[in-house]
């Protein structure tokens, strides 16, 4: 499997584009930036984050003024990025005490913060009640008991929403599905009556303000959103009926997709990396159904993360070594899954370019990282080797190789880069703004990279590069 991209299809005018042979972001030469600041280097665009926040908010609020976008901060929790999003009038969804701390530091008011999570500790719940936030999304009956106990201990009344299992399967990768009982999320609908009884018995400690569901990330079709909205609306009305009071909001989660293929005409993992829908289609599919069922006074909460920041950053990595193998040329980069974790864990695709040779014809290369394990590669080592072992053990399957390849191998084997790419050249991975910075590690003693942002005043530091002393942070010597 390879990627056949239309030359230049990855460009977004006035944002990310080629100028001659070099890659520019917001008018800044990224090749020059990497030379000055070193690699690996993450570069974010403040303008792109702001523009996307406005576009998502507008897509929902022009259809329903009481729609509230709560950015899923797990996608990127850098304080300077959070402040950009807060300034656009959005709320925030957090998934831990640490993310709650960051949200407050970035300036989000408590009444614009939602807390999710499947294993909330008592300490995290206490933080969410000092003062009480907009809502704690309750993930289990046990957690509901814990919230009641913590709230009583503090003399507070927690605002809660019940996170239900909508039993909606969504077209995405298995690790990103969250809408069925086969995943670790939510309260089963058969448990709702028991939850209601617990809530009735604790009017001093909890007040139910909403219902919540989430069906996954990087969903490529509007049908699951429509189905989830319909099912959650029914649950909302039933909870409201059983409690005998109106709920304030319905929260249908996020999972809005981002196109990662950047003009490529063949996608690994089906169409997961080149979805045909965007926020406008999702808003049009879900909002009319919810408003018809629940009326115009209900607040509708959305929790986009990846779509908010995913296409706002580029990772710049230097080629440090090159080898000729039987299957072609291999390039060895100074960035591996230590700085781009989902390329390994989820076999996530990020489009790659030779950032200093964009005007050259391309040739195929195998890309690998610097870490000391064979899985540190920008192709699917496990999938490729599983396929070869399978064909060796069952030779008659050779006739089905193409089908098996599409099922088992989840990344392209090769990347089209400038034909003369070699040591010293700069590789840019596009659309890596989400689920990257928060997952970086100093694996193999490799320093976590510098992170910067291009804003109105030019390049600004978000996170300095680790020093050798940082490798000892919190270690007792």
Structure description:
The chain has 13 helices and 20 strands. The protein is 29% helix and 21% strand. Strands 4, 13, 14, 15, 16, 17, 18, 19 and 20 form a nine-stranded mixed sheet that branches. An eight-stranded parallel beta barrel has the order 5-6-7-8-9-10-11-12, surrounded by four helices. It has a three-stranded antiparallel sheet with strand order 1-2-3. The model has no long low-confidence stretch (mean pLDDT 93). It starts with 15 loop residues before the first strand and ends in a 14-residue tail after the last strand. Helix 2 packs parallel to helix 9 (279-294). A hairpin with a 2-residue loop joins strand 19 and strand 20. It has 477 residues and is an alpha/beta fold.
């Amino acid at each position: 499997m390879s990627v056949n991209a239309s030359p230049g299809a990855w460009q977004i005018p006035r944002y990310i584009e080629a100028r001659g042979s070099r890659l520019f972001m917001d008018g800044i030469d990224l090749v020059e930036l990497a030379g000055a600041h070193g690699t690996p280097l993450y570069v974010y665009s403040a303008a792109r984050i702001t523009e996307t926040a406005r576009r998502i908010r507008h897509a929902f609020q022009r259809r329903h003024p009481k729609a509230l976008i709560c950015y899923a901060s797990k996608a990127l929790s850098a304080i300077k990025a959070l402040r950009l999003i807060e300034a656009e009038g959005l709320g925030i969804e957090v998934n831990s005490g640490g993310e709650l701390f960051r949200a407050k530091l970035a300036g989000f008011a408590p009444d614009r913060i939602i807390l999710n999570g499947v294993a909330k500790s008592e300490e995290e719940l206490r933080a969410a009640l000092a003062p009480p936030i907009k809502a704690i999304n309750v993930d289990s009956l046990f957690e509901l008991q814990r919230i009641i106990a913590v709230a009583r201990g503090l003399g507070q009344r927690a605002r809660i929403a019940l996170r239900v299992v909508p039993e909606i399967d969504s077209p995405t990768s298995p690790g990103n599905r969250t809408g069925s009982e086969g995943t670790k999320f939510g309260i089963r609908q058969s448990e709702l009556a028991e939850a209601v009884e617990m809530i009735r018995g604790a009017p001093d400690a909890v007040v139910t303000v909403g219902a919540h569901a989430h069906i996954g990330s990087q969903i490529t079709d509007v049908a699951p959103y429509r189905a989830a909205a319909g099912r959650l609306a029914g649950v909302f009305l039933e909870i409201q009926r059983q409690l005998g009071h109106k709920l304030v909001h319905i929260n249908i989660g996020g999972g809005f997709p981002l196109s990662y293929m950047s003009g490529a005409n063949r996608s690994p993992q089906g169409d997961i990396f080149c979805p045909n829908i965007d926020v406008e289609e999702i808003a049009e599919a879900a909002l009319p159904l919810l408003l018809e069922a629940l009326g115009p006074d209900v607040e509708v909460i959305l929790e986009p993360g990846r779509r908010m920041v995913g296409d706002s950053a580029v990772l710049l990595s230097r080629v440090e070594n090159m080898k000729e193998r039987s299957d072609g040329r291999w390039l060895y980069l100074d960035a591996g899954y230590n700085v781009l974790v989902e390329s390994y864990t989820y076999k996530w695709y990020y489009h790659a370019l030779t950032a200093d040779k964009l005007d050259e014809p391309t040739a195929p290369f195998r890309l690998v990282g610097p870490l000391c394990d064979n899985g540190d590669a920008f192709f699917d080592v496990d999938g490729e080797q599983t396929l070869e072992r399978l064909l060796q053990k069952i030779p008659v399957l050779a006739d089905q190789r193409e089908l098996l390849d599409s099922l088992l191998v989840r990344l392209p084997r090769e990347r089209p880069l400038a034909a003369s790419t070699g040591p010293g050249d700069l590789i840019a991975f596009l659309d890596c703004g989400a689920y990257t910075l928060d997952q970086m590690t100093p694996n193999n003693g490799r320093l976590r990279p510098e992170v910067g942002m291009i804003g109105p005043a030019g390049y600004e530091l978000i996170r300095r590069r680790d020093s050798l002393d940082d490798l000892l942070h919190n270690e007792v010597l």
